[in-house]
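Late entry, evening session. Most of the bench is empty. Finally got around to the prediction I had been postponing all week. Sequence below, unchanged from the version circulated by S.P.
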Amino acid sequence: MTFDFDKIIERRNTYSAKYDMTSQGKLADTIPLWVADMDFASPPCVLDAISGRVRHGVFGYFIPDARYIKTLQNWFSQHYDWEPDGSALIRTHGVVSTIYVSVTAFTEPGDSVIIQQPVYYPFVSAVTQTGRRLVVNQLVKNEDNHYLIDFDDFEKKIITENVKAFILCNPHNPVGAFGRVRSLRKWAISVQSMVLLSYLMKYTRILSMTGTSTWFSLDWAQNIVISPSRAPRRLRRLI
């Protein structure tokens, strides 16, 4: 099946957050690159499946069946070399709500939660708006304009700030850096006394082509909550 990626589809005045939020303000002539929202049409198989469900006419509460669980397991097995127990799969409304729920579930008000900035902004609000204390391990830009992890600062703050959870974005949004196995191992050793909330951007399957790995296939990874999501626009480098 071939797809036409050159067809321009007008999205203005379609309640599009990407376009209509700018067109209603002073930035109507701005190219909206601020959100991970592609302008390609969905593939026919997806449109057909949705249309068939719409034609049924009744939209009640949804429960996942065995095919739903098996489809997810097959996806993880194929792309991540990991087949999760079906009982470990929890449906949520999206990655942002999952961040908030995870922070609330695994920490208490007043607890310290560490993140690595610059990072996707809900990582900050999920900490501050739930009454937790934000601790920042600032990524360091080198002479090649690549962001690196300051592990010395990271490990120091875990102890001095009594950190209870670490929210990791891998690949990192927005800098696009990917954690190699050695970095994942170092993270895991550092955070073994707390909860790691790991939010994986969509192209984590690239890991299998770059000689790296994911949390899924590491037998020493413990206390990890994983929420697969979308990818940063550009995957720049490996950490």
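Two things to note before I forget:
DSSP finds seven helices and nine strands in the chain.
The first strand starts at residue 112 and ends at 115.
Will write this up properly tomorrow.
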